[in-house]
Amino acid sequence: MDAQQIVKYKEQLGKIGASLVSQGMKVGLGSGSTAACVIRSLGKRWQEEGLRFEGVPSSIASAKLAESYGIELTTLGECPELDIAIDGADEVTHQGLQLIKGLGGALLREKIVRYAAKKFVIVVDERKLVDKLGEHTPVPVEVTPFGWEATMKHLEKIGASIKVRVKNDHPDFFLTDGGNMILDCDFGIIDDPVRLEKDIISIAGVIESGLFINCTDEALVAGYNGIQHLYK
Ligand SMILES: O=C[C@H](O)[C@H](O)[C@H](O)COP(=O)(O)O
């Protein structure tokens, strides 16, 4: 799949994702480049069709993008229950729609927004589809900076090979919107993601894992044959 093709797929996903939103809905706005295409399409509908909805962004970047189209944003404080959240993902299993998310570092807020929503739809191109999680992507784990070295040791004990995430082309640690660190944990092929998520979350210092298990209702997958709809 070449870069031009990927851009085309993301634009298609943006339009279809945005078409799921109707007047007055409460909407969780995801993060990353594919979710950004949904936000742009929603922005066009806001400007050209007068679509109005209440948007809760899952990252500062998504908030800025939405605001650049004039979309009025709200918070989970004002609007704790959402009709739908639409987001990207880094890996998606064909069966069960289990996910790895967080290569962009937004996993904690994305998960909070997801669980505030009645329905969770993800938008991905077909490169992200896998039989089992862990085929291409480590599991991003958000940890508190205090004592992160000890947290890392515990993650290693449950089988992770770890890279501490740093900023692009920079030796400084990458920090999330919430000021936390990300440890990219390679567990190899993940046979039991339910168990692994529990094991990760039970470690002191771990704030959230990038495993999104049994929580996706629908995946829109762009590929050579158009957009497929997969359901859990
Ligand atoms: O933290 C980032 C998010 O989980 C993204 O939704 C995910 O990384 C997919 O991003 P993209 O659509 O840019 O591949």
UniProtKB/TrEMBL annotation:
<dbReference type="InterPro" id="IPR004788">
    <property type="entry name" value="Ribose5P_isomerase_type_A"/>
</dbReference>
<dbReference type="GO" id="GO:0006014">
    <property type="term" value="P:D-ribose metabolic process"/>
</dbReference>
<dbReference type="InterPro" id="IPR037171">
    <property type="entry name" value="NagB/RpiA_transferase-like"/>
</dbReference>
<dbReference type="InterPro" id="IPR020672">
    <property type="entry name" value="Ribose5P_isomerase_typA_subgr"/>
</dbReference>
<feature type="active site" description="Proton acceptor">
    <location>
        <position position="110"/>
    </location>
</feature>
<protein>
    <recommendedName>
        <fullName>Ribose-5-phosphate isomerase A</fullName>
        <ecNumber>5.3.1.6</ecNumber>
    </recommendedName>
</protein>
<comment type="subunit">
    <text>Homodimer.</text>
</comment>
<comment type="pathway">
    <text>Carbohydrate degradation; pentose phosphate pathway; D-ribose 5-phosphate from D-ribulose 5-phosphate (non-oxidative stage): step 1/1.</text>
</comment>
<comment type="function">
    <text>Catalyzes the reversible conversion of ribose-5-phosphate to ribulose 5-phosphate.</text>
</comment>
<keyword id="KW-0413">Isomerase</keyword>
<dbReference type="GO" id="GO:0005829">
    <property type="term" value="C:cytosol"/>
</dbReference>
<feature type="binding site">
    <location>
        <begin position="87"/>
        <end position="90"/>
    </location>
    <ligand>
        <name>substrate</name>
    </ligand>
</feature>
<feature type="binding site">
    <location>
        <begin position="101"/>
        <end position="104"/>
    </location>
    <ligand>
        <name>substrate</name>
    </ligand>
</feature>
<dbReference type="Pfam" id="PF06026">
    <property type="entry name" value="Rib_5-P_isom_A"/>
</dbReference>
<dbReference type="GO" id="GO:0004751">
    <property type="term" value="F:ribose-5-phosphate isomerase activity"/>
</dbReference>
<comment type="similarity">
    <text>Belongs to the ribose 5-phosphate isomerase family.</text>
</comment>
<dbReference type="GO" id="GO:0009052">
    <property type="term" value="P:pentose-phosphate shunt, non-oxidative branch"/>
</dbReference>
<feature type="binding site">
    <location>
        <begin position="31"/>
        <end position="34"/>
    </location>
    <ligand>
        <name>substrate</name>
    </ligand>
</feature>
<feature type="binding site">
    <location>
        <position position="128"/>
    </location>
    <ligand>
        <name>substrate</name>
    </ligand>
</feature>
